[in-house]
Amino acid sequence: MAEVIADLEGKSIILGLTGGIAAYKSAFLARRLQEHGARVQVVMTAAAEQFITATTMQALTGNPVYTSQWDTRVPSAMAHIDLSRGADAILVVPASADFMAKLARGAADDLLSTLCLARDCPLLVAPAMNKQMWGHPATQRNANQLRADGVVLLGPTSGDQACGEVGAGRMIEPDEVLEELVAFFQPKLLRDQRVLLTAGPTFEPIDPVRGLTNRSSGKMGYALARAAHEAGARVTLVSGPTALAVPRGVNRIDVETAQQMFDAVMATVLHAQIFIGVAAVADWRIREPSAQKIKKGRGSPSPVFEFVENPDILATVAALSNPPFCVGFAAETHDLDAQAQAKRHTKRVPLLVGNLAQDAIGADSSELIVYDEEGRITLGPADKLTLARKLIAEIAQRISS
Ligand code: C5P
């Protein structure tokens, strides 16, 4: 399992629960928020208590759970003010249709709605309801009103619903809420920039069932796609075959061969301000893959393949007449400094990121060395998402200067 990063360290989150069957998922969410370093204060509506108990949420967070604005445990007798003071965000998960209606019209008739109205911090809500309720013009009107009021809506998505129906209104999963919240707090260093990345290995066919590939896991490229999205960029990720989930908000184009990766990049690169080539692209492909499975036979000779060189995607992009800011990667087994600087020059890219292949491939943590015309700096060692965020900051700084 990937290690947990304390990227919510020091954040104080009010987790509001309203009445919906998805309330049970907030128990996982509370746990996950704390694992990431957040302090979690739970507030529940009366309807939420029909679905999950305050005792459960208190046991999970280690903090008293508040359910009423008349709670005498709050010294000032003003729970809505005391609780919102010092909060970095209020997260309402799940947010029922009724609670969204309350928020939209500024109602304050229970502790959670009063807290939302009295807040001095961002409000993020994850709607969860039956598809008819979500699709109703009143709910859509309320959702638009909330967006106009600066509330961040997380989802909903489509899928199986507790009522047995399938459709829009299903709450996004706790880990997706977490990913959205973490992204929300990241500095918007690349706001509205278009970033194009390649990631993962390529796969060059030998015959219909065999091929040549490499040991790239795609983790670094996917972490960079996520970090760029968190920084406010519009991200397209051209990915070779990997088992990784697409980061939220990232547009992924799936390819197999280097030529397909080249074609996909060339079709989209003119819109990009930043191109990051992280993929481990095969240098060669087999000239004529067999249309049928190659069979071994007693006495028949071993196959001999003729290779042709694949196009160099990064070098081609960097040679465009008006190229995006280009970043290359080099995973080397030895002589990293010399090889990386040489690669930076031959590919004519302003930034080249090196790492030792034996440390980096497939691992969750690594160390990056960033080479530019001024020399080299080291990022890490750290987990790949932390490294990705640091590298995005390096890129953002160079673009803005
Ligand atoms: O030449 P080498 O493969 O070592 O260079 C690595 C860098 O070039 C990486 O950024 C990789 O994504 C990119 N590359 C490419 N197209 C190729 C080969 C490498 O974009 N055919």
What name does CATH use for the topology of the largest domain? Rossmann fold
Q: Reading side by side through the largest sheet, how are the strands ordered? A: 12-11-8-13-16-17-18-19
CATH architecture of the largest domain: 3-Layer(aba) Sandwich
- Looking at CATH, the homologous superfamily of the largest domain is CoaB-like
Number of helices: 14
Helical content class? 25-40%
Shape call: elongated
Distance between the first and last residues' Cα = 39 Å
Could you tell me the strand content as a percent range? 15-25%
- Number-wise, the strands total 19
Bound molecules: cytidine-5'-monophosphate
User: Could you tell me the mean pLDDT?
Assistant: 94
**Rg, Å, rounded:** 25 Å
Biggest sheet character? 8 strands, mixed
Q: Could you list the spans in which at least 5 consecutive residues all have pLDDT below 50? A: none
CATH class placement of the largest domain: Alpha Beta
Structural class: alpha/beta
Q: How many separate structural domains?
A: 2
Structure description:
By secondary structure, the chain is of the alpha/beta class. It has two domains: 174 residues, Flavin prenyltransferase-like (Rossmann fold, 3-Layer(aba) Sandwich); 186 residues, Rossmann fold (3-Layer(aba) Sandwich). 33% of the residues lie in helices and 25% in strands. It contains 14 helices and 19 strands. Helix 1 packs parallel to helix 2, helix 1 runs parallel beside helix 8 and helix 9 crosses helix 14. It is elongated, with a radius of gyration of 25 Å. It binds cytidine-5'-monophosphate (C5P). Cytidine-5'-monophosphate binds next to helix 11 and strand 16.
